[in-house]
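Sharing a chain and its predicted structure for anyone who wants a worked example. Both blocks are below, sequence first, tokens second.
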Amino acid sequence: MYKIGVIGDPVSVLSFKAVGLDVFPCEDGAEAKKLIRRLAESEYAILYVTEDLADEAASEIERYSDSRLPAIILIPSKEGASGNGLMNVRKAVERAVGADILFGGEE
């Protein structure tokens, strides 16, 4: 059975534990890269990563951008949303359908 994991600073991810997700508190990009790789190579189908750590671990996340699993989804951290999560969804949809159907090319 596939699992869902959440990677981010402790304050941002701890509440996900209450709904049964596996939580991996992490404070820096190097640690986040290691966690992403380890979890991607195990039974995790979905990884939620806070946007600030995703920025620091962008090269590792990019490795899985065209893979079926895991789906890596960016979420806001305690600092708030940076917009990178929405941009990643936009790029994924554009890759899948060949056009920007979400925003119609507007920035």
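Comments welcome. The CA atoms of residues 51 and 81 lie 7 Å apart.
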